[in-house]
Fold:
Amino acid sequence: MYKRNCEIKPGIEFPEGMQRIMAGVEYNGAAFNGFQKQASTANTVQAKLEKALSKVANETVSCVCAGRTDAGVHAGEQIIHFDTLAQRPDKAWVFGANTQLPDDIRVLWATRVTDRFHARFSAEARTYRYVIYSADIKPACMSQFVTWTTYTLDISAMQQAGNYLLGEHDFSSFRSSQCQAHSPVRTIEKLQFSQQGRFIVMEIKANAFLHHMVRNIAGSLIEVGRGAKPREWLLEILEGKDRTKAAATAYPWGLYFVRAHYPVEFDLPHAPAGPVFLG
Structure:
């Protein structure tokens, strides 16, 4: 009997009748213990998705994501794929799964793809946004969706400091001690700040990320933005390759996985990059 294994790399021959479905998923991660399924808890985004999709398929479904997110981290458009023998129209996967999912997880779209597509291995880059809310008073309605600071941040200084991180580097200084990646070398293609009223947004795109890399970078750039450290400090940290020299890890609430980037051959549909309250 063919055993479905969505973690296998693309190009493995499918048995007759098997199809691969790709989907875009939005979720509020505040209530979950991260995306990845865990033996110790069913309260993960992956576990909820698989349960819902399995009901639509009337068979056990296992899914793979483009980038695993930690507890408290959100997604504007996480990309997943799963393999199934069930024949369903695209809309059935979307609306059927959403009737089974909690309100803080939504399937945005779904489409059939070839077995050459793999949500994780086919991705060429990933983009995150980190949202900071700068105000004297902590927001009552958005405490789980932004990282709040009372500091007035100099985003010009943060941008100039962030520019030191562009390109290929050893990011050991921004790597969690629990990171299991074989190499600390990553390539940051974009690191850009923008401001909309009291919202300050750091958008960062890289070929891949280390565990807590975005939050560790954000924590250090906030130190620069509030004037506690000079811009050149980021370069010193980067070159030092010592996590203990950088700032504390920023909170997860402001972090959003907003896009996975794939070769044009896959012709993915896309929802607007989130989070939605930024327009």
Observations:
- Confidence is low (pLDDT under 50) at residues 1-5.
- The chain has two domains: 19-122, 125-256.
- The two ends are 48 Å apart (CA to CA).
- The domain at 125-256 is CATH 3.30.70.660 (Alpha-Beta Plaits).
